[in-house]
Amino acid sequence: MRHHRLLVPGAAAACLLLAIPASAADATPGAPGIGDSYYPSYGNGGYDVSHYDLRLKYQPKTDRLEGTATIVAEARQDLSRFNLDFALDVSEVLVGGKKAAFTATGDHELEITPAAPLTSGRSFTVVVRYSGTPSKVVASGFTSWLRTPDGGIAANEPESAWWWFPSNDHPLDKATFDVSVAVPDGTQAISNGTLQSTSSQLGWTRYNWRSGKPQATYLTTLAVGKFDITTDTTANGLPVINAYSKDLGDNAGAARASVERSAEIVDWESSVFGPYPFDALGGYVPNVPTGYALETQTRPFYSPKGFAKGANTSLIVHELAHQWFGDSVSLKDWRDIWINEGFASYAQWLWSEKEGEGTAQELADYTYASYPADDPFWKVEPGDPGPENQFHDAVYDRGALALQALRNHIGDKDFFAILKGWTAEHRYGNASVEDFVTYAEKVSGKPLAALFDTWLFTPSKPAAAQARAAAVSPAEAPVRPKSWQRIQDTHSAHGR
């Protein structure tokens, strides 16, 4: 209600004021961004989502997507208005079962004004009906929706949700998901978590997927096409679901030889990082022309090009390590990307050590020696690389080097206790680089700020004396570990 309507003389004014809930008088719009330092417009303020229910229908021939999203959230302030991140066409919005006004602003903001203000601390439900052709929608200069010969894929970082469901699109606001997708008979729909049921009617098959643990929006995936699907269970009884496009050509065998080892790799990673945090696992390889991979929760996305040189278990190790580092323990701000990528890269070094293809120490020595001091590699600070360098090689290699420096400084006992303790303490939550430094100091009992400043926050190659102090400065030129090139090959799978 506008303030000038309150300027009524006498008793009438008092009656009108008494009729207005306090929250309505004080309600303000939620911020159009969650406050990320790299992507100020991503996410939104004023509320927190607990669950998304997505009911979709997708026609592969035309790339037509129709959907109804039901979002359960809680107001974190008295809200007169709030935003969702979305880029498709919206036909109707309901808040609390009542029609709400809405308008599209910018290239991915849906601004919603409910019929009455929302009270802080109260739960509310939003229903959004929408449709569109995702591959034709350009937001921020690109599309994250990938077309395949027989369908479409949603998988990208740091954003992909805008093209298929409205959301609070930032890792700070994780939620559970139900994703129900109807596709023409003979076509499959793959998403995260566990497959609850399927049903067919009038030429359409509906797949119902559930993610019962908190999940970031960019880690939520959808793949529609014609797949060969393999299923199994782990030794602990977790369902394993893998899917491969039927037209992968020469890469098909290598893709299967890699992804089918997911259960084995998760069992090994569980021994290093602690219990696997989710209720399903697997991976999928669609026929897309991209070269990257992505740690979509419980079911990583892999491009066929990742297997062009043969089987690549190191890539599988990286994406599955993200289930702990990035998916379960998610970053607070996109500048904290090191707590995702540095740890997943170090997992590859540990796998190499396990497989007898080069120890983590040998990989650290070779990494340090491979880049001369004037190489741009050392200009990137893994602890805060900037949005333009978020997926730079330095975030991966120099990021892993920082962890080996930490391991050498505090010893294996404390180092591996930190890996397990960190994933347990922040399970299903969010954390920052600073949080990790504080935690490592607590467990080790040693001051570590200077070490991390050297390896994560200095835009130059650590001096020989600093490298020797971290035991990563070999006296002689190191021999290249057998795993080195394969690990380097996976870097191209991480650039978006």
Q: Strands, helices and their partners?
A:
Blueprint: H1 10-19, H2 22-26, E1 28-29, E2 47-59, E3 64-75, E4 79-85, E5 89-95, E6 98-99, E7 101-105, E8 109-113, E9 123-132, E10 145-148, E11 151-154, E12 175-184, E13 188-190, E14 194-201, E15 204-215, E16 222-225, E17 227-233, E18 239-245, H3 252-259, H4 262-273, E19 281-285, E20 293-294, E21 301-302, H5 313-321, E22 330-331, H6 338-355, H7 360-370, H8 393-410, H9 412-425, E23 430-431, H10 433-444, H11 449-456, H12 464-469, H13 484-491
Parallel strand pairs: 1-4, 2-12, 18-19, 22-23
Antiparallel strand pairs: 2-3, 3-9, 4-8, 5-6, 5-9, 7-8, 10-11, 11-16, 12-15, 13-16, 14-15, 17-18, 20-21
CATH domain topology of the largest domain: Immunoglobulin-like
- Assigned CATH superfamily of the largest domain: tricorn interacting facor f3 domain
* Helix residue percentage: 25-40%
- Give the CA-CA distance, first to last residue: 46 Å
Mean pLDDT: 93
Strand content: 25-35%
Strand order of the largest sheet: 6-5-9-3-2-12-15-14
